[in-house]
Amino acid sequence: MPRRIGFAVGIPDFVFGLFSLAIAFGGGFATPLAEIIWHLTGAGILMLMLPMVFTVLRPPRLDAPGKGSSRAILAFPMVLAPAGLATLFLVLHALRLWQLLML
Question: Mean of the pLDDT values across residues 28-52?
Answer without folding.
Answer: 88
